[in-house]
Amino acid sequence: MAPNVLGRALVTAKWLSEAVRAGRVGTSLRVLDASWYPPQKRNAWQEFKERHIPGASFFDIEECRDQSSPYDFMLPSESHFADYVGRLGVSNDTHVVVYDGDELGTFYAPRAWWMFRAFGHKEVSVLNGGFKNWVKERHPVTAEVSQPAPAVFKAKLNTTLLKTFEEMMQNVGSLRFQVVDSRPEGRFRGTELDQGLESGHIPGAVNIPFHSFLTETGHEKSIEEIQQIFHEKKVDLSKPLTATCHKGVTACHIALAAYLCGKHDVAVYDGSWSEWFHRAPPHYKVSELKRNKA
After folding, report:
1. Active site residue 252
2. Strand partners, 267
């Protein structure tokens, strides 16, 4: 039986709470806290040690990335990912549930969800509503940090779910796939700074801020509402689609939203604007601010 009416990509707090209380967290079900916050604001690891879902492990997105890359949070190698999640007790047969503690409800969890899928893992879900709503609904929490038994995970990168800078450059001319940018409107239009960088967008991209898919409570909107959002932006879910953002994180919200609508092949431009800004030629960076100054 599917754990949620919206499909395996999401599980409800009620379903997970029942699994936790029944003692099902273990080799067949692993819960991962994928929280990350700007260091000057919150400490994700410290907060995890103080309070988390019983049986959960901490998925450190700072550690599980390509640390040789000049860009934040780029995918690690197959062996790096396999070794890291194996140490968290995840095997290829494990159902993984990811969540984070962001005040929006969900922020980094879809990135972890997409990473597992990119490395060939199908049984992975996001906790709908995140830790914020888990606590609000009075489900159990603990400060006890568990030590899962190591498992063997074999990773195989699914390149159809990943786009490189070179592929994005080629697409500006060929328009072989649609591009949706999940950043706030001001950063997309180029009217406000994007985490210290001049902002703007890739030519031809459409803007759907990632929070458009979340309700006021921080839960994922209904499939019908999500389909309407894509429709209003003239995004055709029957055609190839790639998501981008600032550093490949909130783009995964686009992939998750499309997945809930039955489109399971949305790619993510891993480098996103942080790479595009530094590598693309000036005329490939669309900005209203620059246009108004010209």
Report:
1. no
2. 242
In sequence order, what are the residues at sequence separation of 6 or more whose Cβ sits closer than 8 angstroms to the Cβ of residue 146?
A: 55, 56, 57
CA distance 92 to 56: 18
Specify whether the CB–CB gap between 288 and 188 falls below 8 A: no
Residue 267: enclosing H or E segment and its boundaries? Answer: strand 267-269
Q: What is the CA radius of gyration of the chain?
A: 19
Residue type, 289: L
φ/ψ of 269, rounded to 5, equals -80, 105
Q: How far apart are CA 84 and CA 111, in angstroms?
A: 16
Quick: pLDDT tens for 86-138: 999 999 999 999 999 999 999 999 999 999 999 999 999 999 999 999 999 99
Token pair 């060939």 is at which residue?
120
Give the pLDDT score at 290. Answer: 58
Give the pLDDT confidence of 36-61 residue by residue, as tens digits.
998 889 999 999 999 999 999 999 99
What is the DSSP track for 203-265?
TT-EE--GGGGB-TTSPBPPHHHHHHHHHHTT--TTS-EEEE-SSSSTHHHHHHHHHHTT---
- 3-class DSSP state for residue 8? coil
- pTM (whole model) above 0.85: yes
